[in-house]
């Protein structure tokens, strides 16, 4: 009886205050729509940034005439005795030239007659920032200022320094900017929704006053407003999500095959995104209604 | 300048002139004001040292010009504001003991009629009256039983499904009276119930209030129309500048007039 009564009250309020209710629904709709587009974009961008960061590598080139035992020894040194090393991948001369052939550059090597490519240990640092440490451990700077290698079988240690620095600073800026934008947008949405609710509530403050004078308790007045907020949030949220779904199926999915950014690996999957958006829309509207009502309840 | 004013406002209120609460609570009184003063934050005295008691079944006029303290008394009674000094008891219960959370439950024992009706604009006549019952947890069956009854009593049977803005002022005030009385409260307060109405309509409203009074309900009517009240031969409490200046049972107070006689008296006053 009680819940039914509150629900009926909420529906009546929605029907009788159609214009403010519509404004609230529209606000929620637009906000959810913007957030729904923005969240995957942020995730794709930071995902792409992370992927670029994971490409920060140290290449350990071995001398041309090393034996299998030498290779194993160096590999052991790199894997076990060097701090900050994440993953080590061995690329032999043969694998290297095969990769070159697959890339369509086999002709040049055929001309050369021999395989000029050295054996290579490709080291991925545990964290991109560790790269300097890894390099310094494998090729410490000698007192004369030259770099020396720690093992006689190593020919050269290369970290593609200039690239690395650029990647690290650029991705940091991208991540920071995106985080900041996401925060601002979330705040703006919250204020927008809260303000719309306050307006529609302000229009009905007299009604609340009368209810209090007749002897209604605070929660007796509040429940219909909270339920109304849930309905508004759900209505706006569902509409926005339907629109997002249509756009996703008709636009984004076909494009995803062609654009790496859209197909970035760690974007949230769609059902989860839908759940988060809908939950947020409903919670914000319901809370907003309940809280904004407070100041009008002081009669 | 602004800073100075803020300072003044924050300064503790100068101690109210020491008053003593005179006398003991009046036993059996519905309303018992003892040495009640109300000072508004702006510094105006709304009421000063008011003492009076109203007994069950009385019909009392509260008279005074605008700003005399009538509305302050009404607002004190519905506990919209707190007295600065003195004690108020309603039906033997000290109002200062009622916490903020308990106010709604207290108000359910009062019927209140306002000058500006204070109806819910989004509800029909029926729903407006029903709301007062639903607030108290009244079941649907109760609503279906009581609401049509009370609307018949107030002569609104044909307007059940109209919205307040489709009614005349007199009809709106009738709805407001119906809402106030649907819970059969022991005390009914009416703050200038005829203030917005034309004289002929006001007769109907006064008759309605009198009819309610005859069922045993104590009725307090605030009005600024002194001349009118003098003719009605009811108890009159007059306030002026926040003080009770007159409290008497006027001349031929019989207490057993018919509603028609009561209305006739009121109408005479109009002429």
Range of helix content of chain A: 55-70%
Largest interface: A-B, 20 and 25 residues
Number of helices of chain A: 10
CATH architecture of one domain in chain B: 3-Layer(aba) Sandwich
Low-confidence stretches of chain B: 1-9, 11-18
Describe this structure in words.
The complex is a heterodimer of chains A (299) and B (271). Chain A has 10 helices and 4 strands, in the order ααβαβααβαβαααα. Chain A starts with a helix and ends in a 7-residue tail after the last helix. With 299 residues, chain A is of the alpha+beta class. Chain A is elongated, with a radius of gyration of 31 Å. Chain A has helices at 2-16, 18-53, 68-81, 93-102, 106-112, 131-138, 161-202, 205-214, 218-256, 270-292; strands spanning 58-62, 85-91, 120-125, 154-158. In chain A, α2 packs across α9 and α9 runs antiparallel to α10 (270-292). Chain A has 2 domains: 2-52 and 168-297, no CATH class; 58-159, Alpha-Beta Plaits, CATH 3.30.70.3040. A 4-stranded antiparallel beta sheet of chain A has the order 2-3-1-4. The model of chain A has no long low-confidence stretch (mean pLDDT 81). Chain B has 271 residues and is α/β, with parallel strands linked by helices. Chain B has a domain at 25-109 and 225-271: 3-Layer(aba) Sandwich (Rossmann fold). Chain B has helices spanning 2-10, 70-77, 103-107, 125-135, 140-153, 169-181, 199-214, 226-231, 259-270, and strands at 31-39, 45-54, 59-63, 85-90, 93-94, 110-113, 187-191, 218-223, 235-240, 243-249. In chain B, the strands form 2 sheets. Chain B has a 6-stranded mixed beta sheet, sandwiched between helices. In chain B, strands 2-1-4-5 form a 4-stranded antiparallel beta sheet, covered by helices on one side. In chain B, β4 (85-90) and β5 (93-94) form a beta hairpin. Chain B is globular. The N and C termini of chain B lie far apart (54 Å). Chain A binds chain B through residues 1, 5, 12-13, 16-17, 206-207, 209-218, 220, 299, and chain B through 78, 80, 101, 104-108, 110, 112, 114, 118-123, 131-132, 134-136, 139-140, 179.
């Amino acid at each position: 009886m009680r819940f039914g009564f509150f629900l009926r009250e909420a529906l009546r309020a929605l029907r009788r205050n159609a214009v403010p209710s519509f404004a609230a629904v529209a606000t929620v709709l637009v906000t959810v729509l913007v957030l729904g587009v923005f969240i995957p974009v942020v995730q794709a961008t930071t995902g792409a940034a992370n992927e670029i960061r994971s490409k920060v590598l140290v290449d350990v080139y071995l001398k041309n005439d090393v034996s299998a035992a030498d290779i194993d020894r160096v590999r052991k040194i790199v894997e076990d005795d060097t701090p900050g090393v994440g993953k080590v991948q061995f690329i032999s001369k043969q694998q290297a030239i095969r990769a070159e052939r697959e890339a369509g550059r086999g002709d040049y090597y055929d001309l050369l007659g021999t395989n000029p490519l050295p054996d290579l240990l490709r080291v991925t640092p545990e964290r991109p920032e560790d790269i300097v440490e890894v390099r310094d451990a494998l090729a410490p700077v000698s007192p004369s200022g030259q770099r020396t290698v720690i093992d006689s079988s190593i020919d050269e240690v290369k970290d593609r320094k200039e690239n690395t620095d650029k990647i690290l600073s650029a991705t940091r800026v991208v991540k920071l900017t995106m985080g900041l934008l996401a925060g601002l947008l979330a705040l703006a949405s919250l204020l927008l929704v809260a303000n719309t609710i306050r307006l529609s509530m302000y229009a009905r403050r007299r009604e609340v006053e009368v209810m209090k004078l007749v002897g209604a308790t605070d929660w007796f007045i509040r429940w219909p407003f909270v339920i109304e907020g849930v309905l508004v949030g759900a209505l706006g949220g569902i509409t926005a999500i339907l629109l997002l779904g249509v756009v996703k199926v008709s636009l984004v999915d076909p494009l995803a095959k062609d654009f790496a950014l859209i197909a970035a690996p760690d974007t949230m999957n769609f059902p989860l995104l839908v759940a988060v958006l809908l939950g947020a829309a409903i919670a914000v509207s319901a809370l907003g209604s309940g809280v904004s009502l407070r100041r009008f309840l002081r009669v | 300048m602004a800073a100075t004013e803020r300072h003044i406002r924050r300064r503790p209120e100068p101690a109210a002139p020491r008053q003593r609460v005179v006398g003991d609570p009046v036993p059996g009184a519905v309303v018992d004001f003892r040495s009640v003063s109300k000072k508004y934050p702006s510094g105006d005295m709304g009421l000063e040292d008011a003492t009076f008691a109203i007994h069950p079944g009385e019909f009392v006029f509260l008279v005074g010009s605008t700003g005399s303290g009538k509305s302050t008394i009404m607002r004190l009674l519905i506990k919209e504001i707190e007295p600065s000094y003195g004690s108020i008891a309603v039906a033997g219960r000290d109002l200062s003991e009622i916490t903020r959370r308990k106010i709604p439950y207290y108000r359910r024992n009062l019927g209140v009629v306002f000058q500006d009706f204070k109806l819910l604009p989004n509800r029909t006549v029926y729903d407006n009256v029903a709301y007062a019952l639903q607030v108290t947890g009244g079941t649907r069956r109760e609503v279906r039983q009581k609401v049509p009854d009370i609307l018949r009593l107030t002569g609104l049977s044909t307007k059940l499904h109209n919205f307040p803005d489709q009614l005349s002022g007199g009809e709106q005030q009738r709805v407001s009276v119906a809402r106030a009385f649907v819970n059969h409260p022991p005390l009914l307060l009416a703050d200038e119930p005829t203030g917005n109405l034309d004289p002929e309509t006001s007769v109907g409203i006064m008759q309605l209030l009198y009819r309610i009074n005859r069922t045993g309900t104590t009725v307090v009517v605030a009005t600024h129309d002194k001349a009118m009240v003098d003719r009605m031969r009811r108890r009159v409490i007059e306030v002026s500048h926040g003080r009770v200046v007159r409290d008497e049972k006027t001349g031929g107070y019989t207490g057993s007039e018919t509603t028609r006689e009561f209305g006739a008296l009121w109408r005479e006053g109009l002429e």
